[in-house]
Amino acid sequence: MDSPAPKLILEDFNLEAAERRLCVAALELAGNIVGAAHLLGITRHALKRRMIKLRIDRPQAPSTEPATGPEVIADGPPV
Questions:
Q1: Where are the domains of the chain?
Q2: CA angle 69-72-78, nearest 5°?
Q3: How many CB atoms neighbour CB 26 within 10 A?
Q4: Cα separation of 76 and 16, whole Å?
């Protein structure tokens, strides 16, 4: 069973502000452009156009570098 959609409360009838809030909320919820576009019921290209128009930064992709533990010196204990 799907969880209910988050509530979005608009403070005024500013359409551009409402569109921006919806896009940002979808991006935060989905974590990527494709998922956010799916939540909004639009194509990823349409979402990317809106992001440019509304000056919304792309969501940051998770780092592909492996997490490192303490530094180890060849002949010594962890630093």
A1: 15-54
A2: 80
A3: 23
A4: 59
pLDDT tens readout for residues 12-70: 899 999 999 999 999 999 999 999 999 999 999 999 999 999 999 987 666 556 556 55
Instruction: Specify the pLDDT at position 7.
Output: 80
Collapsing DSSP to helix, strand or coil, 72 comes out as strand
Please tell me the distance from the alpha carbon of residue 1 to that of residue 63, in angstroms, as a whole number. Answer: 31
Q: Which of 23, 61, 24, 58 is nearest to 42 (CA)?
A: 23
Instruction: Specify the residue for token string 């570098």.
Output: 65
* pTM above threshold 0.90: no
* Structure tokens belonging to residue 52: 């440019």
